[in-house]
Amino acid sequence: xHLTTLSPRFALGQILVAPNAQEQLExxxxxxxxxxxxxxxxxxxxxxxxxxxxxxxREAGGVLSIFRDRRDQRFCVMTNGNRSATLVVAWTAx
Length: 94
Prior knowledge:
Helices cover 33% and strands 23% of the residues. The protein is of the alpha+beta class. The chain has one domain (3-90). The protein has a four-stranded mixed β-sheet. A hairpin with a 5-residue loop joins strand 3 (74-79) and strand 4 (85-90).
């Protein structure tokens, strides 16, 4: 079963998309990434970042996911510890 078919593991709060992400990413891809992020699919996060996310879920800490769009543009989705807001930011360089 793919993680996007599961129920969300946490609330995203207010969703904010940085100007660079609005300019560089397609809305549908951002929405898909937000669904994956909320379900605990951390995308390309490294093992230590995955461990930090799992701890963040248990201890009310922030969580971070890293994704790539169809054009290979990297972007991250970050939700703060109190789950009041989630920010989407595009990377400008690797």
